[in-house]
Design brief:
By secondary structure, the chain is an alpha+beta fold. The chain has helices spanning about 1-35, 105-130, 135-165, 210, and strands spanning about 40-50, 50-65, 70-75, 80-85, 90, 95-100, 165, 170-175, 185, 190-195, 200-205, 220-225, 230-240, 250-255, 265-285, 295-305, 310-320, 320-325, 330-335, 340-345, 355. It has 4 domains: about 40-50 and about 280-355, conserved putative lor/sdh protein from methanococcus maripaludis s2 fold (Beta Barrel), CATH 2.40.420; about 60-65 and about 195-275, Elongation Factor Tu (Ef-tu), domain 3 (Beta Barrel); about 75-100 and about 165-195, OB fold (Dihydrolipoamide Acetyltransferase, E2P), CATH 2.40.50; about 100-165, Helix Hairpins, CATH 1.10.287. Helix content is about 25%, strand content about 40%.
Length: about 375
């Protein structure tokens, strides 16, 4: 019995040893194959880094604002008796827009004028009597005061009538009418927006480190969506305060706008010409690998694998970016002239990855494409 048990144990031990040896050989062979495995080369396009001089410009997003812009409103309460304008029309300074009902004021004016005439007659009569000593000087003084009060009353009523004639405070373009005939208006009720469009302001913000390079009189160009919305103007004002939240400075430029292409509130892109040139290396926008920890590009170099075999691979290079122009992005730091930079396929690359360059079809690399937003 013991011999049989010992024999079985010996057989099991031999069997397990054999299986372990086989598995060990399989694992060792797999590890060797894994060590010799190489990822296939990724197909990419490249461009040689070249130095260029770009005029120093500062771009920002802004909005147009009227030099004069108000919502014309009622000065005094009253009923709309006449509407003398049409929505969207151009009006001149002083043009009548709305006439409120002034029948009550007209009646009061007639009564005040009659009172003035009576007071005037009384003064004239007492003037002669006072000179002859028949009337007392106090009576004449009282009559003269009543005449002046009557004249002041007339002026007050006429001013009230004028305030119920709502006129354009400046030359501009009207918006959409907000009142109707017979409508009762409270004091301050809106009637119609009025905007002065020529000239027009464009307001935008720039970082505090760039604001020191700006001064009144510098040329500013703006462009908005739509044909014919490009304009050239001058920087006219800078805010005296820096926004503590964004550390930006508010800038204001003034533009001639005779055709009214720019409208208050319109979104625009502003470009300020700083007058000097900056040395940069332009690359297609597709060459940039954007990441929260830093922007980078991939530079093609001759490399060697762990076995010492040469191959063409890529090195990830972090760069400092500048402004964009058309299809290009300016690289300020991190690249050297003559380096070969990957321009497409960067999303599938990693440090040391093998690549195969094929420049039969390359991404757009035009600083002034047509259309511009291509």
């Amino acid at each position: 019995m013991k011999k049989r048990m010992t024999l079985m144990l010996i057989v099991v031990a031999v069997f397990l040893t054999a299986i372990g040896a086989v598995k060990y050989g399989q694992i060792k062979k797999g590890m060797a194959e894994q060590a010799n495995f190489q990822m296939p080369a990724e197909a990419v396009t490249t461009v040689l880094a070249k130095v260029q001089e770009w005029p120093a410009t500062l771009s920002a997003i802004g909005s147009a604002a009227a030099v004069h812009g108000v919502v014309v409103s009622a000065d005094l309460p009253g009923v709309v008796d006449k509407i003398a304008f049409e929505s969207g029309r151009t009006v001149r300074h002083g043009d009548l827009l709305v006439q409120l009902d002034t029948r009550q004021e007209a009646a009061q004016l007639a009564a005040a004028q009659a009172q003035k005439e009576l007071a005037n007659l009384t003064v004239e009569r007492l003037t002669g009597l006072t000179k002859t000593g028949i009337a007392a000087q106090a009576d004449w003084d009282r009559a003269d005061a009543e005449l002046k009060q009557a004249e002041a009353k007339i002026g007050e009523i006429r001013a009230t009538i004028a305030r119920k004639q709502i006129r354009a405070p400046f030359t501009g373009v009207l918006g959409i009418r907000q009142v109707n005939l017979g409508q009762y208006l409270e004091s301050g009720s809106p009637i119609v927006p009025l905007q002065s469009l020529d000239p027009i302001y464009v307001n935008f913000s720039v970082p505090q480190q760039d604001a020191v390079r700006l001064k009144p009189g510098i040329e500013v160009k703006v462009k908005a969506e739509g044909p014919g919305t490009e304009a050239t103007g001058k920087l006219t004002a800078m805010d005296s305060l820096i926004d503590s939240a964004t550390r930006n400075v508010q800038i204001q430029a003034t533009f001639s706008n005779p055709k009214g292409k720019l409208r208050p509130g319109q979104y625009v892109t502003a470009s300020v010409n700083l007058g000097s040139a900056t040395t940069i290396i332009p690359l297609p926008a597709s060459a940039i690998n954007y990441a929260p920890y830093g922007d980078s590009v991939y530079v093609v170099e001759d490399m060697k694998d762990p076995k010492g075999q040469a191959y063409k691979g890529v090195r990830q290079q972090f760069v400092k970016l500048g402004p964009g122009r058309g299809d290009q992005i300016a690289v300020l730091e991190g690249l050297k002239p003559g380096e070969e930079v990957v321009t497409s396929g960067v999303f599938k690359l990693r440090q040391g990855a093998s690549v195969q360059v094929n420049n039969k079809t390359v991404p757009a690399n035009n600083p002034a494409p047509k259309p511009e937003d291509s």
